[in-house]
């Protein structure tokens, strides 16, 4: 019978080995959460997941930790005790246990978790010194367990279930409640009674830390030193290799994580993942990735991933993802640049050389191939041969041996020529090299291409056989046309503008087009116009930007984005989605994705590689992910208010002084990074671009109704948050009605005032018009008067001039009469007494009577003043000593009369006139060089 069992076990091992992947040495991804990340203490004693919200809860030495996928919160117990255990029931109530304390947490009025203690219902005084190490949610109620007591909480009542001795943990498996009673064995708890399981007495001397279901009826019972298999009758050792490991490393926790997958956590050496037969599939420890090797708690989440609470931190083992990783945690291999699968070996090309390991022996480490020490750039399997482009030249790798084919340094890239499938072309530090097959069908170096000398980092051949090269470092693109014998360059064209320089430029061929990444986005070469155009016009499914493109087959393409995220698509369709790989572990400027075989694709990383199964790529970029959750809303710079949501958010209302809101959100999916897009109704016109954020602040929101729409790149379904910013009290509906009436009254008052103002304005305008008309009339009257005055003055002046002229005529007449008198006197004297004296006397009297007198002068003076504006009057005012004769002389001089004319008017001699002029000059005090007549004219 025993021999038969061993045969079955061996057959199982063989089947497992045959079915096992050649890359079984690659392990699931590890995601670390340090105490700096969750901002609490190192030790995490328990883990549980909320079924409804999918949030994770951890029993931490500082308190209860809550993780929603983006942010962490810590809830401390009222007594600041260490939280030793945590469990969540079907309704989502979170139970915790601590020193002398147990109870539950439920959302408070603002959404934050509020603690409700149940310890006051315990009557035993010694309970205050007991720690609740285990909480179990059962159909019989919630069990809180210390090492001395078991309390059952059911229907609001706490009941003591007195065990039959000192106990360890209560376990639930196959609907049974099992616990160890020290020194007695394994018991089953049924209702309020304990029943010893026959044959388990030997377990009372060990420490049972886990009991797990095995198949439909059996149990796995794990102690600190071994795991036993119990079929209901017999206890047998489970797996010799597994038990040997546990014997050395002390089992502490166990968990079923799949139909054929078990997790065992140890105190000394991390986590083991085994199949149902106990064969170890993965081992995680501090040496190969865990933060700490002491496992205190384990929990499987809704996606099938394993959460591990450690003595130092929290780790997540991503079992749900088909991606597996190989990590060189010790740094023995160096930075990985390329890799290849060849002849049942896996080869890694690093900056330290070429390493290999047989794929049929997963436990063997990678070994360095002698002679390949140094920088490896390229590994290529072509026609059954593995060729290596190396800093020292080009090697052919066979098994663990390397043979130098070409000593030209820097074999960067090697391609088969499409038009010459029996030839290879290689870009190196300095030359283009050609390889051909020898007579044995082996690749050998042939020659270099003349007419070209430059470092070639990337090389492609287009449909016309033209060679495109991307020169390093950052020297731009060049197009080469080779001669028919491929020995020289016949024509070349440089693409030296800024678009084709820099580390952002990468060259590849997609279908029939040469495509280049650049600072301006993706560019495709258009042969018809001999220029580069936007690649979106040729391949719209590529998107706008990419850091690098990797066509791994005619149907599949990977796109490395600028932020390090990786997308996968089938050529000719839209990108399906992002591949969930870490974005910060690429080899900068030398990113590489390698098709290993028909089943796997590898991604080179700084310290290893990621392994992608081809058949599960659609699952990687798809899958059901919950829509994002709006987690909290808090007020910034205003009356404090903070709301935390465990589910859908209610309508929120804020005052006008709380117009700056800070909103956080998350996606309770823990193995794929989420990007978010949001749109706030009544504040934003369109959706924001997808961003790697989990919070957003909206500032200075005016009063009104708002609705935040949120979606993620993992789920297009929206989450919404409706809220309002209330207006101030002076801008409510009632105040607006009051303001409306006041406004109506004011409008009416303003209208009345306006009418009054219009009337006043009209009166003012009318008065102004009347005043203006009056002024215009007065002005007209003044103008008429002035005109009449001018006319009168002109007439008067004209008449005065006429009178002056007549006076002058009279004076001239006097002059004539005087002359006649003189002539008559001479005639009388000559005639003697011949004529009668009476006749002469009568004629003389007649002449005397007609000669002008003083009256004639006064008339002349009056007329003269009218003409010359009272000249004489002003002259007398300024020179009162002037005599009448002086005035006459001044008047005659004013009229610009000559001395002769003045003498005749004055009836004096010329000499007398000169003498009068002299006297007048003295009286007027006029200098001798001034003309007296001109002085009078200007006076």
UniProtKB/TrEMBL annotation:
GO biological process: regulation of DNA-templated transcription
Endpoints of the signal sequence: 1-19
Coiled coil stretches, renumbered: 758-830
Domain HTH luxR-type: residue ranges: 879-936
Pfam family, one: Reg_prop
InterPro entries the UniProt entry points to: Ig-like_fold, Reg_prop, Sig_transdc_resp-reg_C-effctor, Tscrpt_reg_LuxR_C, WD40/YVTN_repeat-like_dom_sf, WH-like_DNA-bd_sf
Entry's transmembrane regions: none
Molecular function via GO: DNA binding
Alphabetic keyword roster: Coiled coil, Signal
Keyword Cytoplasm: no
Protein name, entry field: HTH luxR-type domain-containing protein
Species: Spirosoma aureum
